[in-house]
Write a structure and sequence with these properties.
The protein is α/β, with parallel strands linked by helices. Helix content is 45%, strand content 12%. Helix 2 packs across helix 4 (61-77) and helix 4 packs antiparallel against helix 5. The longest helix is centred in the first third of the chain and has 17 residues, at 2-18.
């Protein structure tokens, strides 16, 4: 039991590192794994299992350098032995440039639970490129759209700008559920977000009508007759940092005949990432959004 518990602590340490948790949080987990201090055993684990297998072989050198600096300082302060390889790795990191990286965690998770088709979108070209790289890293990304259709459990990455999106851009994108995380933040973007949500929640036959009747690629104001009684649904996880911003979103959604229901209390998510010590789950709200009938 003790050995299993130790392995669990080391696993949490590795996952926190790969998730780019704040260095202070990683150091806290390193201390726990070492029974109160960053022992040579834990140092070796960080070197071989965290830094040595850094995601995608494209390390964030600035992050690695900070982690190494804190681990070395902690070990020296507590009079523990600092292994030579840790000093050497720290010296190597100081010669390297910092690189940023994007994520596609939702796509990975949906593929894991067996979603038949996943389409990830982003309106920033560089973020989209990073997303594709992460999907390729997980053997999930296929460049050819036809191959995506024919392949089970693969992820398609597409460029989608909320400001420029039209019904024609979304026509033919089969979807049962729309997911979003922390996307309600910029008041100037909210009208565009609501417009895209409205288009995504419409049924395909109505979408086709909207495309054919559109002028300047704008959709009609009609709404799906299924709506909240059986139509598509969007789930958005968000943190309400600014009440005025959320109120702006709620008003725009109401004007677009969208129903917003806070289901946080009835659908409490499990704590899947126990190593994310900096993440305050209590502030996360889960919203279910549908078209009103």
């Amino acid at each position: 039991m003790a050995a299993a518990a130790d392995e669990q602590l080391l696993l949490h340490l590795k996952l926190a590192f790969l998730a780019l948790e704040p260095p202070a949080c990683v150091l806290t987990l390193a201390r726990k794994a070492g029974g109160g201090s960053v022992t040579p055993h834990v140092q070796n684990f960080i070197l071989e299992n965290c830094i040595g297998t850094n995601v995608g072989k494209s390390p964030n050198y600035a992050y690695v350098e900070t982690i190494l600096k804190k681990v070395i300082a902690e070990a020296e302060l507590s009079s523990d032995i600092v292994i030579d390889e840790l000093y050497e790795e720290f010296g190597q990191c100081m010669l390297s440039k910092a690189l940023g990286s994007g994520v596609g965690l939702v796509g990975v998770c949906l593929n894991y639970i067996g979603a038949s088709k996943v389409i990830l979108t982003d309106g920033d070209v560089s973020t989209l490129a990073n997303m594709k790289a992460n999907m390729e890293m997980n053997s999930l990304y296929i460049k050819d759209s036809q191959l995506v259709i024919e392949s089970k459990n693969k992820v398609e990455c597409k460029y989608l700008s909320w400001e420029e999106a039209s019904a024609k851009d979304l026509w033919g994108c089969q979807r049962d559920v729309v997911l979003g995380a922390d996307i309600i933040y910029n008041p100037s973007c909210l009208p565009h977000l609501v417009r895209v949500l409205s288009m995504l929640l419409r049924e395909d036959d109505e979408q086709c009508t909207s495309v054919n009747a559109a002028t300047n690629e704008e959709t009609s104001d009609e709404v799906s007759e299924k709506g909240a009684t059986g139509g598509r649904v969007a789930y958005i996880a968000t943190v309400i940092r600014n009440v005025d911003t959320f109120s702006c979103f709620a008003k725009a959604a109401a004007d677009a005949k969208l129903s917003i229901v806070n289901i946080t209390s009835t659908v409490t998510p499990s704590s899947f990432l126990p190593y994310m010590l900096s993440y305050d789950r209590s502030s996360v709200q889960l919203l279910a959004i549908t078209l009103l009938s």
